[in-house]
Structure formats: structure tokens, C-alpha cells
Design goal:
There is one protein chain. The protein is an alpha/beta fold and about 450 residues long. The chain has helices at about 5-10, 25-35, 50-60, 75-80, 90, 105-120, 130-145, 155-170, 195-200, 205-210, 215-220, 225-235, 255-260, 305-315, 340-350, 390-395, 430-440, and strands at about 15-20, 40-45, 85, 100, 125, 150, 175-180, 275-280, 295-300, 325-330, 360-365, 385-390, 410, 425. The strands form four sheets. Strands 3-2-1-4-5-6 form a six-stranded parallel β-sheet, sandwiched between helices. It has a four-stranded mixed β-sheet with strand order 8-7-9-10. Strand 5, helix 7 (about 130-145) and strand 6 (about 150) form a beta-alpha-beta unit. The longest helix is centred in the N-terminal third of the chain and has 18 residues, at about 130-145. The two termini are about 40 Å apart.
């Protein structure tokens, strides 16, 4: 039966997938704009730090005000309304909710919400990939121990990338590389929330219309989010990560097979079987043409003469040797696609990507000369950007994970582009996120 058919069946038998959300920002709002059209899926409750803001966002995307006045999850489940609350425990502990969507974007709070959900027997779709990048494998282990599912969020590039890798492997191909696109030039790494819109290509008015968060969008621009999402793809697929971080080679869609070959074959890869990000801008700032900026891709190898002949016979675009080709989705639709994760988890008991190992990590790298006593403002801010590194290197070097950097206070001066370590900062290590980080690091030896 098709996945949509399963949703129809759930609706016909009055057994909907009952969903609770934590965080009703941009990603969450995009999902909420679609979910009323999904059979067999019911939003029961939403927790947000500001109920007024959550209510405003829901009304902004078309939810009627009278659907937002349930006084409990029990009432919401019975009437089809939504219970709005600031109390996350009321959502994670509710017996009237089956699946939790964590979409706060707060990598420390997200761990609390996810683990609480596991403790109450809830499956989790994690939109806050920032948390997944530093302790995803530990969260997945906790989910298995609790007998629940932990899934990456469809619509975000990690889940879509993991799906393409799975497609390639199930077709019998060797995966040469996989990843996402990005609009990149090296100086973007120094962007701040005050400079992001000019680089991004939006006016301040357009950003305000979409209720876009400049710090969040700056995390995309400065390379932090590409590093985070590349780590998530690596950890979910087993692909390795570059020793010195992402290279961001520039190219259009048809150049992917040429670029994503090992360097000794004329490509940009450090070695076979890696994650990488392809830029839509050349070094001089000019646009490459038909780009993959908003999409994801996988490059595969035709490892026999017969397969390479098939590529040729069917007009497949390959590299100059005819050995490598690529499959891609040129766009991802973010929260508009999240229903796929909810449907897979709730109707098929399958995830849309789960970290299985700790391979890639994202460390905090300084955006300038920072003085002792400086307070780091974390992902997308003005002080640090994220650098992708192999997890064995980052843990051995005690690199400060980007997702744990917000609020850390420097104990010494650091230079531009210097990796900041845990020994360089004063940091509150009491949150559960640090316990999950330790559990994840322990998996390196398992």
C-alpha cells in the first residue's frame, strides 16, 4: 500500500497519527500550513516559549482562531482543535500524542525535549539538526533502548540526502559522494546577522514579510548549517568527512560527476565515499548557471563496462571518463515536506534517516580576533562559525561543539579562523545535552 494510502486508512478507521510540536517558528509554521490537508494526521498540541507568537503564526498561515482554544491535549484529541502551551512537558508526557516534532532550533533545549519524549514512549522527528550533529548517535541509541523511533526531518537536506544514498545503494551502486548545494564564497564565513540579507539576496522587507530570523539564515550563509547538515548525512549514511572541512567546489548540476571524483582522478574529493557541498558561485562571484544551491545530490560509480555502457545508451550525463553519474533533487521544500517523516514514522514505523555512527562533528571556529572574556553567541551569530571535522579528530582535540557554544566565555584570546576548544572556555556543562555528548563520544569506540 502507498504511504498516502496508509494515511487514508488511518483516517477511515479513526486512528490518526497524533502529533505534538515543540516550537512553532518558520519550519514548524511551514509544516502547519500543510498538515490540515493530510488525512490520518492530527496536530494535538504545540508548545512554544510564546503562546501568543505561536497563535499569531498559526493565524498568519490560515488556521481559524476558534481551532486554537483547546484547554488540554485530551480535549484537542477529541475535538480536532489544538492545545497551545508554554509547558513542553504537557506535550512530551501527554498520553494523547504519539509523535513529537522537535523544531525549536535550540540545540541544548532540544535534547531535553527529545529525551523526555523517549521517556514517555514517544517517537521523535527532530528538526533541530544542530542537536543531531553533536549527539545524534547518542540520541538514536537512547531511542532504541526506549523502543521508540528517532528520525531526521524530511524536507531538510540531511533526510533527503540520506534517502538518495539509500536509493543508490539499493540500486547496487557504489556511492562516491553525497551532499547538498550552497551559495558560497570564503568571505561569507565572516557574515553576521547584520550583513546576512545582502549576501543572501533578500531585502530587509522580504525578510520581514516572511518573518525570517536573521541569525538562523546567517547560519546557512556562513557555512555553519552546511557543516551541520553534512555531519548529519555522514552520521546517517556512514560516509566520511573531509579532514580539513568542506571544500565548497563550484559547479552546476551537470558538473557534479566531474567534481565529485577523487583528486587523483581529476575531481575535488579527498577520497572516495565522502560528504561535500557544491557552491553555486565561482571564486570570482559569478553564478555557475543551473545550480544545486537549494538541493541535494548523490554521485555514484558505474564500476563495470556494462553499467557504463548503459549510462551511454540511455543518455546519462557522466564525467569525462563515463564512470560517474549523479542523481539529485534540485530543491528542498523544508517544512512543507515534513509530512513525509510523520507519515513514515506513524504509519510505517520507519524513519526518514537516523544517525547510526558518530563520524562527522561540527566545531566552533572564530570569526575574528576574539578577546578573553568574550561571550560566544553560537550558530549564526557574530563570533563563531561551524567547521566540519572527523569526529575522532574533534574529540581527541577537545574541540568545542558549535551546538554547545552559545554563552561560552573565552578564557584566552583567539585568532581569526582558530578552532576553539573546551579548554579555551568557561561553560555551563550541567544541561543534559552535555551528558548526551559524552554518550555520543563513547560510541566512537563501540
Amino acid at each position: 500500500m502507498s504511504l498516502y494510502g496508509k494515511l487514508l486508512q488511518l483516517q477511515e478507521t479513526n486512528r490518526p497519527i497524533r502529533v505534538g510540536m515543540i516550537g512553532a517558528g518558520k519550519f514548524g509554521s511551514m509544516f502547519l500550513a500543510q498538515v490540515r490537508k493530510l488525512p490520518g494526521v492530527q496536530i494535538v498540541g504545540i508548545a512554544d516559549l510564546s503562546v501568543a507568537r505561536a497563535r499569531s503564526n498559526l493565524e498568519f498561515i490560515g488556521w481559524p482562531a476558534d481551532a486554537l482554544n483547546a484547554i488540554s491535549t485530551e480535549q484537542a484529541a477529541g475535538t480536532g482543535g489544538i492545545f497551545l502551551t508554554e509547558d513542553t512537558a504537557a506535550i512530551t508526557a501527554s498520553p494523547f500524542i504519539d509523535v513529537i516534532v522537535e523544531s525549536t532550533g535550540d540545540p541544548i533545549a532540544a535534547v531535553d525535549h527529545i529525551v523526555s519524549s523517549f521517556d514517555h514512549g514517544k517517537d521523535v522527528v527532530n528538526v533541530t539538526v544542530e542537536a543531531d550533529s553533536y549527539c545524534g548517535a547518542g540520541l538514536a541509541r537512547r531511542a532504541r533502548d526506549a523502543g521508540v523511533l528517532y528520525s531526521l526531518a524530511y524536507g531538510d537536506q540531511p533526510a533527503l540526502g540520506a534517502e538518495l544514498v539509500d536509493w543508490a545503494r539499493c540500486c547496487g551502486f557504489h556511492v562516491m559522494a553525497a551532499g547538498r548545494g550552497h551559495k558560497w564564497q570564503p568571505h561569507f564565513r565572516l557574515s553576521t546577522p547584520d550583513t546576512v540579507w545582502n549576501y543572501w539576496g533578500l531585502t530587509a522587507e522580504q525578510a520581514a514579510r516572511g518573518r525570517l530570523n536573521p541569525k538562523m539564515f546567517n547560519s546557512f550563509l556562513d557555512g555553519s548549517k552546511p557543516a551541520i547538515e553534512s555531519a548529519a548525512i555522514a552520521n546517517a549514511t556512514g560516509l566520511s568527512v573531509p579532514a580539513e572541512g568542506l571544500a565548497f567546489p563550484a559547479g552546476d548540476v551537470e558538473s557534479i560527476p566531474q567534481l565529485m571524483r577523487p583528486r587523483d582522478e581529476g575531481g575535488a574529493l579527498e577520497r572516495r565515499g565522502m560528504v561535500e557541498v557544491i557552491s553555486s558561485l565561482r571564486e570570482d562571484g559569478s553564478h555557475v548557471g543551473y545550480d544545486i544551491r537549494q538541493g541535494i545530490w548523490v554521485c555514484v560509480e558505474g564500476d563495470t563496462d556494462y553499467i557504463r555502457n548503459c549510462f551511454e545508451e540511455y543518455g546519462v550525463v557522466t564525467d569525462s571518463s563515463g564512470r560517474y553519474c549523479a542523481m539529485y533533487k534540485r530543491f528542498h521544500l523544508i517544512g512543507l515536506e515534513l509530512g513525509m517523516s510523520v507519515a513514515h514514522v506513524g504509519a510505517r514505523r520507519e524513519t526518514t534517516g537516523t544517525p547510526s555512527r558518530f563520524i562527522g562533528d561540527v566545531c566552533a571556529v572564530s570569526k575574528g580576533r576574539l578577546r578573553s572574556g568574550s561571550v560566544l553567541d553560537g550558530e549564526g551569530g557574530a563570533t563563531v562559525y561551524g567547521g566540519l571535522r572527523p569526529a575522532p579528530h574533534s574529540t581527541a582535540g577537545r574541540y568545542l561543539p558549535l551546538g554547545l557554544s552559545h554563552g561560552a566565555i573565552l578564557k584566552r584570546d583567539v585568532a581569526l579562523d582558530e578552532i576553539i576548544t573546551l579548554d579555551d572556555v568557561e561553560i555551563d556543562s550541567s544541561p543534559l545535552a552535555f551528558t548526551l555528548r559524552a554518550e555520543t563520544e563513547a560510541l566512537l569506540d563501540s
